[in-house]
Amino acid sequence: MTLRDLEKRIEAFQKQRPRRTVLRRRKKTNDTPPDWLKKTLLIGTGVGLGIIALGALFIFIYMSAPRGVSVDVYTEKNVTRGVPFEVSVSVTNNANMTLQDGSITLNLPAGLVAAGQSTDPSIVTDKIGELKTGALSKKTYMLVPVGTEGSTEKITAVFSYETKPGSRFETDNDMSVTIGGSAIALSLKQPDQVL
Could you please report the per-residue DSSP string of 94-124? Predict the structure, then answer.
């Protein structure tokens, strides 16, 4: 027997005999992740959602906050004719820049005059100057109602400022007051008989 005959026999034997496939069984594994992994994912998800919620809240608050310059006027709604009363004007700089050369002008109607004002009692002007970002400036004025009883008078406060030289801006606000009766009533009565 030669080597070739032996090889042929082996080939014939292999053709007659089917190949056996060995199947191995896998060990049964638990497909659920371990508890520490579950806890870590749960905590990480909670922290991530918390950060997103805080970011959304910050953006909402930032976007809804007033921007720019605001002027507010405060006073009594009802005043007595001839009795001085206070008017407060506050200016807030919510802009992202310093305001230059600021001034408040109070425009008064004919029924109100500024106490102690010798030139024009219907216009009061105060220089504020520089107003930094986030700053508040408040001025108080004394006014005297001289209009007719029952009339409503509108006080207008105007804040003018520059952002850079040559760029002048204004913002304003107003408030109305109602003039009531006089503080002092004077009554003259003519006598019935003259002696």
Answer: -SSS-EEEEEEEEE--TTEEETT--S-TTEE
| DSSP code at position 32 | S
Strands 78-81 and 167-182, sheet pairing: parallel
Would you state the CATH architecture of domain 69-182?
Sandwich (2.60)
Sequence-separated (6 or more) residues with CB below 8 Å from residue 116: 142
State the Cα–Cα distance between residues 151 and 80, nearest whole angstrom: 11
Distance (Å, rounded) from C-alpha 160 to C-alpha 99? 10
Mean pLDDT of 33-49: 88
**Which class for 145: exposed (0-12), middle (13-18), buried (19 or more C-beta within 10 A)?**
buried
Q: Are 137 and 97 in contact (CB under 8 A)?
A: no
- Domain range summary for the chain, segments of one domain joined by +: 69-182
pTM over 0.90? The answer is no
Helix, strand counts (H, E) of the chain: 2, 9
- Over the stretch 129-146, which tens digit does the pLDDT of each residue have? 999 988 999 999 999 998
Judged by phi (left if over 0) then psi (alpha if -120 to 50, else beta), residue 124 lies in beta
Rounded-to-integer distance, Cα 92 and Cα 56, Å: 26
